[in-house]
Amino acid sequence: MNTILTAVAFLILAPVIGILVTGVDRIITARMQGRVGPPVLQPLLDIAKLFEKEKVGVWQAPAVLIFLHLAFMVVTGLIFFGGGDLLLAIFALTLSEVFLVLAAFSTRSPYAHVGAGRELIQLIAVEPVIILTAVGFYMVTGSFAASDIMSFSGLPVILLPGIFISMVCILTFKLRKSPFDLSTSHHAHQELVKGVMTEFSGSTLGMVELAHLYETVILLGIIYLFFVGNPVLGVLAVVVVYLLEMLADNSTSRVKWLPALRGAWLITLILGGGNIIALSLL
Amino acid sequence: MAYLSKSPWILHYDASSCNGCDIEILACLTPRYDVERFGIINTGNPKHADILVITGGVNEQNRSVIQNLYDQMPNPKVVVGVGICACTGGVFRECYNVAGGVGEILPVDVWVPGCAARPEQIIDGIVKALGILEQKRADMSRAEAGA
Lengths: 282, 147
Description:
The structure holds 2 protein chains of 2 kinds.
Chain A: H1 2-32, H2 42-52, H3 61-81, H4 86-105, H5 110-141, H6 146-150, H7 156-159, H8 161-174, H9 202-225, H10 231-251, H11 257-281
Chain B: E1 9-16, H1 20-27, E2 41-42, E3 51-56, E4 58-59, H2 63-72, E5 78-82, H3 84-88, E6 98-100, E7 110-112, H4 119-146
Parallel strand pairs in B: 1-2, 1-3, 3-5, 5-7
Antiparallel strand pairs in B: 4-6
């Protein structure tokens, strides 16, 4: 019963929180640039508008694959917030990303294809840290189940500082923020037009945006997990980490894929791997 | 609900403008005018755009390009011609390579004359276009319900 309640709460609350987070993000980003910025609910207006537009797909494949992208993102959230296996949630998250890549490859646009290739590179850069996070939580709490980790009374971050820092760095890839917005960016002014999302329009693009809201909430949930023993500190950490991501987004320019991949792996190897080795020696 | 007029995404195309109007359009995005206040975003991708903003007259080379961009935009969509060259061809009207204003090939909904059109005028033109956009959406949903 409790699980069903959590599931329903996640389905409804995650987009609401996601909209508020991205809406505030857009306002703060605008203020950092000396502008006023859009209303807080602008992400909701954008998504609602996209579902009002005409469907122009030549064939069904991209829309179906994007629906699977959204569906598996929701499944990831249900597993994670429902207290399920952390590893299973991570695999569902990866599967969701793979569906996005497949959808981009199923179109005929060279921009979408290059964007999809870069999305795969981002996946390669990000995946080790996410796996190490799960391993780290297992070593600290003795369980892969999210429910057990959530009932942990201490602060996992004290034992996992290296993994936490690598996770914050990796979040930049996942939130599609500069300097790591290689495959697509929030504004379509790069050399790839809109990267992976170039060919999606109308409700298909709306589903991508919706999936991104779920993804944002899931990732911030993982950040919260590092401070699970102290909810106030946890929420504060999530806010501070997101502000740092915004600052990085507004003060850096995009890097090429090779430095991005090398940087991500170097941080993972030294901080993440070092952290795991230190834990096993303790 | 009127979501469309609260989140209009713009595709800007420079047909054969002298760049005067283009700079004024970019000025609309700067802190002084900040059109993102109204949810207006310059997308650069026809598949995501609701409003096609064209500066400069049409020349024989880019006729097909403009038509292609317009065709790629999903309905409902509107076209705004910015600057006197987009309206009539302006000072380039008599040139051997210029076909004339944007109206030669596309159904333009709003004209914003001027050389160069001022940012205030451009924003005013976009806002006028939003009303037409809503009208087109209402027509579209009515046609869908009828069919």
